[in-house]
Amino acid sequence: MEKLTREFVAGLPKAELHVHIEGTLEPELEFACAKRNHIDIGAKSPADVDHSYGYGLTEFLKAYYNGMKVLRTKQDFYDVTWAFLQKMAQNNVKHLELFFDPQAHTSRGIAFETVIEGIHEAIVDGRALGVDTQLIMCFLREFSKESARQTLEAARPYHEKGWIIGVGLDSAEHHNPPLKFMLIFAEAKKQGYYLTMHCDPKQVDSVEHIKQALEIIEVDRLDHGMNIIENPDLMAYLVEEKIGITACPIAYYYTRQDMEEKAITTLFKEGALISLNSDDPSYKGGNYINDVYYQFAQKVGWGREELIQIAKNSFTTSWISDNAKKAYLQQIDDYVAKN
Ligand SMILES: [Zn+2]
């Protein structure tokens, strides 16, 4: 087996399918936005901006929602997206399916238009960096169904323009199962959106939530869903139906000090179309996708072979045309042949 190097990982063409734009807000930009929007975040310099939160999903979410409060104008949303797209280009990410959480902003009095127009403008400019980006709008699961319905309505003109291709579901999972949003997701599907959903690891009723997402909501992809390995029948279904599953090992490490190594390697061995992703890099030790690939491989003893397959899975399970997939898979083969 050839030795895996950081250099090899860095050059490998890849897609990122699970990352929240709000979770990419780095301390420098957070500080700058706070300053220009006259928001006191209790920091005298970017070095004072504290993204630590102890452990657990609830604790992480608190820090996450606190950080994004500085995003208020179209320029702010442009800047956070642009900064991230530059990072993606450096990480040799060719295709990005990016989450955003509109309700986390509209609930603070920011217009939906402000959010989407800022993000979209950066996405258009990002094409010059060689990063092709699509947007996935996530509903916050602790918010009401009515709020999700209004958000879907607000998104309609942008979806029709092709600015948003999918809907997802994230945030506080306890007592907010996939079924709560069954009708919203059915409506989104009717409108032509792709569907995905977070099923965070080790939640109350994790396996039941995964089952609902796969069998009732009929998601096109599953985010996290690591507890599926507890139900071999459900795992076999995921594999058979070729439903993509996005794992974020470094993010797990930062919220619970384990990388879900067993789940990820089991899914991989069973032939699931699993990809590795960064989730909220600015809150996960500043680890972007290349760090995620490399560190996880180091942890479980994976070499080039496995990471090549992971990169292939990322394109195979992305929401691009078959021709585009073929072209990206060819880029991987060409890269491997040359290296
Ligand atoms: Zn996530």
Describe this structure in words.
- This protein is α/β, with parallel strands linked by helices and 339 residues long.
- It has a single domain, classed as Alpha-Beta Barrel (TIM Barrel).
- 50% of the residues lie in helices and 13% in strands.
- It is built from 15 helices and eight strands.
- It has helices at 6-11, 27-36, 57-67, 74-90, 102-106, 112-126, 145-160, 182-190, 206-217, 232-240, 249-256, 261-269, 289-300, 304-316, 322-338; strands at 14-16, 93-100, 132-140, 164-170, 194-199, 221-224, 244-247, 274-276.
- The chain has an eight-stranded parallel sheet with strand order 1-2-3-4-5-6-7-8, sandwiched between helices.
- Helix 4 (74-90) runs parallel beside helix 6 (112-126).
- The longest helix has 17 residues, at 74-90.
- It is globular, with a radius of gyration of 19 Å.
- The two termini are 14 Å apart.
- 48% of the residues are buried.
- The model has no long low-confidence stretch (mean pLDDT 97).
- Bound molecules: zinc ion.
Distinctive features:
339 residues, alpha/beta, TIM Barrel, eight-stranded parallel beta sheet, 15 helices, 50% helix, 13% strand, globular, binds zinc ion, EC 3.5.4.2
Summarize the structure in short.
By secondary structure, the protein is α/β, with parallel strands linked by helices.
List the helices and strands and how they pair.
Layout: H1 6-11, E1 14-16, H2 27-36, H3 57-67, H4 74-90, E2 93-100, H5 102-106, H6 112-126, E3 132-140, H7 145-160, E4 164-170, H8 182-190, E5 194-199, H9 206-217, E6 221-224, H10 232-240, E7 244-247, H11 249-256, H12 261-269, E8 274-276, H13 289-300, H14 304-316, H15 322-338
Parallel strand pairs: 1-2, 2-3, 3-4, 4-5, 5-6, 6-7, 7-8
Helix pairs in contact: 4-6, 14-15
Zinc ion binds at residues 18, 20, 170, 198, 223, 279.
EC number: 3.5.4.2
Enzyme class: hydrolase
Cofactor: Zn(2+)
